[in-house]
Write a structure and sequence with these properties.
It is built from 3 helices and no strands. The chain is mainly alpha-helical. The protein has one domain. Helix 1 runs parallel beside helix 3. It is elongated.
């Protein structure tokens, strides 16, 4: 592994940041939907997604920092990976909720 000159490690760090960005966008959509329609559930989901997005970007930064220090990056702890996975599913639900609320209100 020490002779690996590929970009796999950098792509993984960037993937954490892209996932955080996707969570952030869905969080904003959920909060916007909740604010316009008085949906407490959508607002709560949006806030949870904002926290998850921040944690995901923090994991990406942590991994990038390991790369800059020329350390072999370690995998994030399993609970963090599971939390990001569940937050991604919540983001999907938030996006669908936003779309469904627009279709129903039309």
């Amino acid at each position: 592994m020490s002779g690996d000159r590929g970009l796999q490690r950098e792509r993984t760090a960037l993937a954490w940041n892209r996932t955080g960005l996707a969570l952030f966008v869905n969080a904003v959509l959920a909060i916007r939907t909740g604010a316009h329609e008085g949906g407490v559930l959508a607002m709560a989901l949006g806030i949870v997604l904002l926290v998850a997005a921040a944690a995901t970007v923090a994991c990406g930064f942590w991994r990038w920092r390991q790369l800059v220090r020329s350390e072999i990056p370690s995998a994030p702890p399993v609970p963090v990976v599971l939390a990001v996975m569940n937050a991604t599913w919540l983001a999907c639900a938030a996006g669908l909720l936003s779309i469904a609320s627009k279709v129903v209100s039309v």
